[in-house]
Specification:
By secondary structure, the chain is α+β, with helices and mostly antiparallel strands. Helix content is 41%, strand content 23%. It has a domain of 62 residues: Alpha-Beta Plaits (2-Layer Sandwich), CATH 3.30.70. It is built from three helices and four strands. Strands 2-3-1-4 form a four-stranded antiparallel β-sheet. It starts with a strand and ends in a 10-residue tail after the last strand.
């Protein structure tokens, strides 16, 4: 999960173009990409949220450690304030 406050939309679009291909190589896909939200209780720490789904926590770690992804992290840092969290989910029993 990524929480974002985008400050340079054009640069962020360039980052996402490159990041998406790398995510897909590691079996990832975006399941939530949202800017519009409504806080109904408490405080939310960011303007946007992106939730990526990977086949496993190991796939997510491999994506984040991918040298090609590491090379574009500065684009994200330059275009947005962000927090990245890897969460192990539940296995799909369907």
């Amino acid at each position: 999960m990524v929480l974002l406050d985008v400050s340079d939309a054009d640069l962020y679009v360039e980052y996402t173009k490159q990041a998406t291909a790398i995510e897909e190589r590691h079996g990832g896909r975006a399941i939530i990409v949202g800017a519009a939200s409504e806080v109904v209780e408490g405080r939310w720490p960011a303007q946007r949220i992106v939730v990526l789904e990977f086949p496993s926590l190991e796939h997510a770690r491999a994506w984040y450690a991918d040298p090609e992804y590491e090379a574009i992290i500065p684009l994200r840092h330059q275009s947005a304030r962000s927090q990245v969290l890897l969460i192990e989910g539940f296995p799909d029993d369907t």
